[in-house]
Amino acid sequence: MKKHFLIVAFVLALALVLAACGGGGASDDPAAAGEKLFAEQIIGAQPGCITCHSLDADTVIVGPSLAGIGSRSDADTLRESILDPNAVLVEGFPSDTMPPVWSDELTDEQVDQLVAYLLTLK
Ligand code: HEC
Questions:
Q1: What pLDDT, in 10s, does the model give residues 25-66?
Q2: Cα dihedral angle (35, 39, 42, 48), rounded to 10 degrees?
Q3: Which residues, in sequence order, are CB contacts of 13 under 8 Å at separation 6+?
Q4: Distance from residue 26's CA to the centre of ligand 1 (Å)
Q5: 16 near 8, Cβ under 8 Å?
Q6: Distance 22 CA to ligand 1 centre (A)
Q7: Whose CA is nearest to atom 12 of ligand 1?
């Protein structure tokens, strides 16, 4: 009986340690935070990225699909695309379609997280 209790206590303690490590690791991962942010339907008062950008290469919503963007872009270009969308336009898409609101709507950290995430889309 006593031995059984010790085993249960040990398993519970182990589960707690694993949960703490897993949870902490995820929130420290900028790309994971960026993935979550990217998927939000509304960010601040704006329709979120996912309402205009699909992650499927063959699906174009309002903006270009971002499938594989990590292979054809780099951190600086992505940052500019988000903060100053009209600076360089993706061919075939008109200006002023991606709202130039993200420098107000996102913190620097959130922009970094989105860029880190987009770079993982190879
Ligand atoms: C209202 C629709 C809309 C929303 C919302 C939107 N975008 Fe865009 N986005 C566009 C359009 C249209 C383009 C293409 C024209 C251009 O380059 O500005 C674009 C271009 C881009 C590009 C350049 C892609 C390339 O191939 O170089 C990136 C990166 C991007 N958006 C990321 C984001 C992120 C991240 C968010 C969320 C913070 C977001 N967009 C929100 C419409 C949108």
A1: 456 899 999 999 999 999 999 999 999 999 999 999 999 999
A2: 80
A3: none
A4: 26
A5: no
A6: 32
A7: 63
